[in-house]
Amino acid sequence: MDSPFGFVAELTYRCPLACAYCSNPVNLSDYTDELNTAQWRRVLAEAHELGVLQCHLSGGEPLLRRDLADLVASANDLGLYTNLVTSAIGLSRPRAEQLRAAGLDHVQISIQAHEAALSDQIAGTPSFQRKIEAARIVKELGWPLTLNVVLHRRNIDRIAEVVRCAELLGADRLELANTQYYGWAWRNRAALLPNRAQLERAEEVVRATRARLAGRMDVLYVLPDYYSQYPKPCMGGWGKRQLIVTPNGDVLPCLAAHSLGLPRASVHEESLASIWAGSPVFQRFRGNGWMPDLCRNCDRRDIDFGGCRCQAFQLTGDASRADPVCHLSPDHHIVTDAVRAANETTCAGEALLDLRPHRG
Ligand code: SF4
Ligand code: FES
Asked: Per-residue DSSP letters for 305-334?
């Protein structure tokens, strides 16, 4: 077993936005307790001891933690590379300067579209203008900037405009991430899932953009796995490369694993090293032993690891089945039915705003 490379510190699930594809748990009221500063410092030190190199400070909105700069400074003292994953609401110049002084290495800002009206509508709150101002501050202070845009039926036709927006801001990296259908996104799937024609147009724009901006901006395109033949190698394999600590101190192998009903592992009860090495939640889907025969006997078992456990659970109620995205899966019809519905509807996605996560 290798050491984890990345560590996601979900500092809080509180958030000023209310995006319809939010990956935070739908039962947010179960997560009102948050680790305090001293507890997070201990967790950061344990992550460093475990071999972690990258620390993603995430949420919810991590800027809502008043101790964020202290935590950045602690991670920086340990030699961890720190990435702030933020909506940028609250990233004023004084706050940004404080984080710069604390040693923050990188900033990733989410925008929901290329312009205010649509972005604010998807975010559920006026926020676009503040995001743009924050992105300018990030560049002025000399940080590398990643812009992250979650793609869905409502905004995927505007990728070219999103790219122009990223260029104007001087973004170093643009993440165009098709929605992953867990949690809130799964509940809103009918309004979010694009049709095939939209995806084909989007992929053409991405190809042309990559060629045009090669060497100037990294353009990452996260594939829409419902339209793929094979599933994604989620998290690079269960318990292989990453670990996540939730605001209340639970430790998970992936952002959505809280939904699987696995035994809990908590930093209140065990060290990160002990949880990583032996806790049932990390052991449950490590290696090939848990796989159904279909995957265990498949040439791709060490490439996609049988796909995403959370997606298998979301779609079949059983996390130990092959990911239904796989065209070989006996459950693949669940995905093809959803894709067929997405290609038959004339819905443009307006309904997605009717069902929002509450803000914690
Ligand atoms: Fe991956 Fe399993 Fe499908 Fe093979 S059968 S491609 S291992 S999900
Ligand atoms: Fe949990 Fe894919 S999101 S394994």
From this structure: TTS-HHHHHHHHS-TTSPPTTSTTSTTHHH
How many whole angstroms from its chain centre is CA 44?
20
Q: For ligand 2, which residues put their CB under 6 angstroms from it?
A: 234-235, 254, 256-257, 308-310
pLDDT tens for 195-245 read 999 999 999 999 999 999 999 999 999 988 999 999 999 999 999 999 999
| ipTM of predicted assembly, 2 dp | 0.94
Q: Which residues are annotated as a binding site?
A: 15, 19, 22
Give the Cβ contact number of residue 320 at 10 Å. Answer: 16
Q: Which atom of ligand 2 is nearest to the CA of 182?
A: 3
Tell me which of 288, 290, 301 to substitute to probe ligand 1's pocket, judged by most ligand atoms within 8 Å of the beta carbon.
301
- The residue among 112, 116, 56 whose CA lies nearest residue 84 is 56
Could you tell me the pTM of the whole model?
A: 0.93
Residues in binding site for [4Fe-4S] cluster: 15, 19, 22
Instruction: Write out pLDDT tens, residues 253-296.
Output: 999 998 899 999 999 999 999 999 999 999 999 999 999 999 99
